[in-house]
Amino acid sequence: MESLEPFNLLWKDKEIKFDTPNVQKHLRNGEQVISTIYYIEDTKGNPGDSGRLLATNLRLIWYSLVHKKFNLSIGYGRIANMNTKMTSTKVRGNCLALYILAIGGNTRFEFLFTDVSGETERKNTPIFQSVFDIYQLYQRTYLYRDLKLRGAILQSGQLIILPQEQVINKVNGVWNLSSDQGNLGCFVVTNIRVVWYADANETFNISLPYMQIANIRIRESKYGPALVIQTAETGGGYVLGFRIDPTERLTEIYKELISLHAVYTENPNFGIVYDSPDLRKRSAGDLMQRKDFKVEEFQEIDERQEKEINSKLNTYLAEGSLMVGEEKPPREPVYCKELGFAMERIRDNYKLKDLWDILPQQMITVEEE
């Protein structure tokens, strides 16, 4: 069977990189810059260099505007602690700074990003709040990115569906071949991940996002043909086997997984949807503006006018109707100067204007205004 093409491993959120050429321009598929903070200094590593701090859905990026080769990439998965504090210098006075403690391997890294804008109003503004918000969203969306074994992914026997997740296929009676005797369970295919859970024990389960799948193939096993999924190095490097009967069904699921994996890795969904406080304020302001209207600014519509719509025309037509047993002779035609053609002579006590105007004069005046 044909296997997957090599793909770009997800490492951006799990590593700390220094001085990567043009790091701010080389974002991986699915990575987005969510927040940009200007006039930020890497105080510990590059003091005196003003730069920009970017918060993506996977990491923090700082790059210098003074020396192009100086930059940082800090994956959210390496951050152990993060807070803000006030720093003081003789040149700039009190400045707000973002302190980050990160751990890479056996090494501890401390970063201090300081606001060097010199703007007084920024000293009392939480300019780093977006970083905290995005980092918290990252921690709550791990199922989009990471392999999870024996997780709390079910409720009342049903898979808990993630935001923006859609179930593509669900196959019952699938054997997990990780043990000698095998375990019977349910295999769920979505647009984000593959899930399997045992029928006898729901806590025995696997949630595997496509981003952590390195290879999918069909191989012979002592149980017959089996679907074999190998996870990436960042996903533990596991080899998972599943038996799906009949063979036609196994081949169908295999082809479906190959297709979904190709679509997902082309444009991954990492699950982070962030609404900035400024956007929320504007939305709240628009809502309040819609609610805070004055009744006197609107004109009341008089429903009685509907009954007044050319009552003379209705009366004229009613009088001209033929009654049972009664026959009225047609009136002779006359030339009408206003209309420019011949018409039936209007009956007594009526004018052409009475029959021509559809709306009462009061309603016409309102519409013209």
From TrEMBL:
Residue ranges occupied by any BBSome complex member BBS5 PH domain in the UniProt entry: 31-85, 165-219
Xref: InterPro entries: BBL5, BBS5/fem-3, BBS5_PH
Organism domain of life: Eukaryota
Pfam families attached to this UniProt entry: BBL5
This protein's record includes keyword ATP-binding: no
One CC-aspect GO term: BBSome
Gene Ontology molecular function: any one: phosphatidylinositol-3-phosphate binding
Compartments it resides in: Cell projection, Cilium membrane; Cytoplasm, Cytoskeleton, Microtubule organizing center, Centrosome, Centriolar satellite
Keywords assigned by UniProt, alphabetized: Cell membrane, Cell projection, Cilium, Cytoplasm, Cytoskeleton, Membrane
Gene Ontology terms: biological process: cilium assembly
Family: Belongs to the BBS5 family.
Name of this protein: Bardet-Biedl syndrome 5 protein homolog
Species whose genome carries this gene: Musca domestica
